[in-house]
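Input.
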Amino acid sequence: MDDATVVLNVAAESAGLRLDQFLHGALPAYSRARLQEWIRAGRVLVDGRSGKPSQSLRGGERIEVTPAPLAPLSATAEDIPLDILYEDADVVAVNKPAGMVVHAGAGAHSGTLTNALVHRFGELSAVGGGLRPGIVHRIDRYTSGVLLVARTDAAHLNLARQFAARTVEKVYIALVHGTLAAESGRIAKPIARDPIRRTRMTARLGTGRTALTEYKVLRRFENFTLLEVRIGTGRTHQIRVHLASIGHVVAGDRLYGAPPGPAARFFLHAARIGFQSPSTGERITVEAPLPVELEEWLGSLAR
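Output.
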């Protein structure tokens, strides 16, 4: 589809649907996030007027959609500083700062980690496609810490098998609201997309993808607890959702109900990852130090 305007008529049976839901069904080639972007940009008119993603349709409306040009199908090299924690012929481990998106997506095409990696290393694994060169796993935009990147297709496939077999050690540091009664715990609730707020995940439905999170207390503050968290799976927002599900939301995580903290992020950091070298089988452990803003956050609690 090119930039030409697409005209859609809302049938009676579509009455009650949100505008973004209707468009996602009518234009399945585009993600819902992209369609919402177009709605907010005024590229979607409902009976000649700009709409809102949440707008409820009555049936009978005439909708005009003017698609925006699609994002490039490959990462674009950008000269962005990178903090390299480990590097060999197979793998690069990067210390991702909070706020940096891992790869391009709806609303984020520049300033990404993949763009920085392409500029720094040139050729990376192509297994994940042109938009995600080398990316074997991800961490949330506002989570900082260590992230593995595959330099070759063979290394990528080897690491993917390790993640699937749950032999990769993933350790996080999280500050949560409240005082946990036990010194350690285990959460094994399945995680699914929240049916009401689609930007969130939930562990309250009893259905979804299996997920395992284990934690232990590192330090207690008044009204806060610092945790070491290990995950056996890598579901979207897993740590944030699981901790919120037991009444201890990650500090600063406004999406899951926490008030804003002193930093422009939430307190979750990927502190350590352990894996086997794809070439030698040697066990490799890479650690990322706690960022300055999180050290200062802890300091303010201690005072």
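Helices lie at 19-26, 32-40, 113-121, 153-164, 238-245, 292-302.
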